[in-house]
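Just curious. Protein, please.
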Amino acid sequence: MKSTTLFMVSCVSILLVLNHIKEAEAVHVQRRAVCEFNRQFPGKCGNEGSNLCLQDMETKGAPNQKNLRCDCFDHPSIILGRPKRICKCRNHC
């Protein structure tokens, strides 16, 4: 009975370790294939901040605009009396 229990616990432990290694490799590959860049633009994000960032990146000539994904963040500092927003964009390298 002890040997059966020990065998079962060993199998489960090995499966958990191997599964964790596969997940870590997948995350590492995914991080390596994504480029990230930030740009500042005047104005606030509002409800359509991501779309505003995509439009601004198109006009400013973002590198490799295919699969471009952007997040918009309002920045508390002010440029010449106007609010600014930060566009954080990612795409496949």
Summary: The chain is about 45% helix and 35% strand. The chain has a mean pLDDT of 76. The chain has two domains: 1-32, 37-92.
